Amino acid sequence: MMKSSTGWTIIGLIFVVYIFLIIEVSAEVKNIRTLSDVIDDHVNVRDITLSSNSLMLDRNGDVISEIFRDENRVYLPYDELPALVIDAFIATEDQRFFEHKGYDAIAIVRAIASNAKHENIEEGASTMTQQLARNLFLTHEQSYNRKMSEILYAHEIEKNYSKQEIIELYLNSVYFSNGVYGIEAASRYYFNKPSERLTLAEAAFLSAVPNNPSHYDPIKHSDRTSLRQAWILQKMLELTFISEEQYEAALMENVTLTVRQKIDLHSDYVTYIHQEFIDLIGESEGFNHKFNSTNSDDEKRLIEQSLNERVQDLLQQGIHIETTLDPFVQNLAIKAIHRHVPEHDIQSSAVVIDHQTNELIALTGGKEYQKFDFHRGFQMYRQPASAIKPLLVYAPYLEEYQVPIQSTINADNLCIEENGKPYCPQNYGGGQYGVVPLSTALKHSYNTPAVRIMDRVGIDTAFSYLEPFAFAKVDSDEHRLASGLGGFTYGVTPLELTRAYTTFAHEGSYHKAYGIKQVTDKEGNLLYSWDQKEIEVWSKQTNDKMRKLLAEVMTTGTARRAQVNTPYSGGKTGTSSDYFDLWFVGLTDQYTTGVWVGKDKWSSIAHISDRAPHLEIWRELMN
């Protein structure tokens, strides 16, 4: 009886322990993580994306700039990959690709035996999936730890992607030396043609490179590449990917490299478009609103950093930035500047806007301009001198008082008290001309009439007419009479001023001209475009009067040398104090063009003013 009682006690204890173990094990099982979960902590296998070159195109659809940093890659989907290239890699890298699940056990055993025999890691037995895992997530260190990680990652890739998707990723990620990634970029770089046009011999030649990119560099070691090419062709023949006739013909074909350099044209214009693209993303995705809504410098820096990161992310997605560049006009502007400003220490910038389509078709950054250097077209702020008068003085006056252009104004010297101090401007050379018509005052660029007009209109009222143009460095500190003569603290850029003058071509309404027409993805789907806004600055009646006044500047005024044979032309010159800057901004029926000439470091260019290079450049462009 006692034995029986003891037995039941032991059974009871065992049962309690069993229940306890079940509870504990169950708790531990809940904490057990799958291999996929562990891998996900290190890499995102389920969302593999590869960078792709972005393109910038001119108005004709021609590429003017290929945009990439470290990896030159043109991404191709599976159905566009050449079958010859797929066959070449399967024949030489992974013959059992469509059978295994990421790793080839038979090949691994064979490699281990070979490595043990040689007491070194000489065979890797990597499948294409393993190579893809290594290219994306791992280093190229030769160790069994790296090999084990490679196998685990490859297994996860096979679980999440089809064989076709793996081939697509592999052939777009594999390295072909000289900074080139993927078969399409390799074909364009080494043979200057798309991969779909590769011959069998060329396809095998390129397929040789990734096995050891430095050893088989086609440019430095083409003889080695050719040897491996022959071996690849032999493998393709053995697996019946090609016929005997194809094999013999490919061996006989002379493979000739046609190395193509990165497309990078029109550096002046392209540099500007990079900045306009940042502005477009900032405006489209709300970065600009956030930036303008905070007064914290730290927050502004973070917003700018986020914006730049977003821009770089987009540029790695293979987007197409379609611009309005007219290559002919761009090249003409550069040549005209060199022809009329040959002095090495004097610079110039030209801006050409097709105001009929509201497009920026040309923009120069300076003589001998290098990409991403300081750009005199949109980064340089200079005093506009009298070129500002039509916008800040005469148009506001006509709009506010509705006076006829035959009305008169005093052109003698004057002194006006401003902020408790006398302001006594003079005309150029100290001349006094009595009472003159408005047209005379403007076409001869008299200073004292402009000051009298601005004083009558009111400084704040006059400056309200500049607000639609959003001159970046013209603020309330500039609200003084001297600004009516262009005497700003910082000034305006040639691009800003030329854009503002397009108002005279749009019946008094301002349409900001851009260089980016639209941004699309690789398939042509629209991603971004500018929201074209129209702002009425002054009435059509005022605008008609201004066009007549500006036309007289060219027929009988300071811009006579800029006359062109067009139905309409009009504009305004500007010469800053001591001849630091020469300006002319004018328009025809189709174009609004601005030209600036000066030195980077403010100093006089009076010795070339008689040649009027700004007018000569403008006339050559408009003719």
UniProtKB/TrEMBL annotation:
<dbReference type="GO" id="GO:0071555">
    <property type="term" value="P:cell wall organization"/>
</dbReference>
<dbReference type="InterPro" id="IPR001460">
    <property type="entry name" value="PCN-bd_Tpept"/>
</dbReference>
<dbReference type="GO" id="GO:0009252">
    <property type="term" value="P:peptidoglycan biosynthetic process"/>
</dbReference>
<dbReference type="Pfam" id="PF00905">
    <property type="entry name" value="Transpeptidase"/>
</dbReference>
<dbReference type="InterPro" id="IPR023346">
    <property type="entry name" value="Lysozyme-like_dom_sf"/>
</dbReference>
<dbReference type="GO" id="GO:0008658">
    <property type="term" value="F:penicillin binding"/>
</dbReference>
<feature type="domain" description="Penicillin-binding protein transpeptidase">
    <location>
        <begin position="349"/>
        <end position="588"/>
    </location>
</feature>
<feature type="transmembrane region" description="Helical">
    <location>
        <begin position="7"/>
        <end position="27"/>
    </location>
</feature>
<keyword id="KW-0812">Transmembrane</keyword>
<keyword id="KW-0328">Glycosyltransferase</keyword>
<dbReference type="InterPro" id="IPR012338">
    <property type="entry name" value="Beta-lactam/transpept-like"/>
</dbReference>
<keyword id="KW-0121">Carboxypeptidase</keyword>
<dbReference type="GO" id="GO:0008955">
    <property type="term" value="F:peptidoglycan glycosyltransferase activity"/>
</dbReference>
<keyword id="KW-0645">Protease</keyword>
<dbReference type="GO" id="GO:0005886">
    <property type="term" value="C:plasma membrane"/>
</dbReference>
<keyword id="KW-0961">Cell wall biogenesis/degradation</keyword>
<keyword id="KW-0808">Transferase</keyword>
<dbReference type="InterPro" id="IPR050396">
    <property type="entry name" value="Glycosyltr_51/Transpeptidase"/>
</dbReference>
<keyword id="KW-0378">Hydrolase</keyword>
<keyword id="KW-1133">Transmembrane helix</keyword>
<keyword id="KW-0573">Peptidoglycan synthesis</keyword>
<comment type="pathway">
    <text>Cell wall biogenesis; peptidoglycan biosynthesis.</text>
</comment>
<dbReference type="InterPro" id="IPR036950">
    <property type="entry name" value="PBP_transglycosylase"/>
</dbReference>
<keyword id="KW-0472">Membrane</keyword>
<feature type="domain" description="Glycosyl transferase family 51">
    <location>
        <begin position="61"/>
        <end position="236"/>
    </location>
</feature>
<dbReference type="GO" id="GO:0006508">
    <property type="term" value="P:proteolysis"/>
</dbReference>
<dbReference type="InterPro" id="IPR001264">
    <property type="entry name" value="Glyco_trans_51"/>
</dbReference>
<keyword id="KW-0133">Cell shape</keyword>
<dbReference type="GO" id="GO:0009002">
    <property type="term" value="F:serine-type D-Ala-D-Ala carboxypeptidase activity"/>
</dbReference>
<keyword id="KW-0511">Multifunctional enzyme</keyword>
<keyword id="KW-1003">Cell membrane</keyword>
<dbReference type="Pfam" id="PF00912">
    <property type="entry name" value="Transgly"/>
</dbReference>
<dbReference type="GO" id="GO:0008360">
    <property type="term" value="P:regulation of cell shape"/>
</dbReference>
<dbReference type="GO" id="GO:0030288">
    <property type="term" value="C:outer membrane-bounded periplasmic space"/>
</dbReference>
<protein>
    <submittedName>
        <fullName>Penicillin-binding protein 4</fullName>
    </submittedName>
</protein>
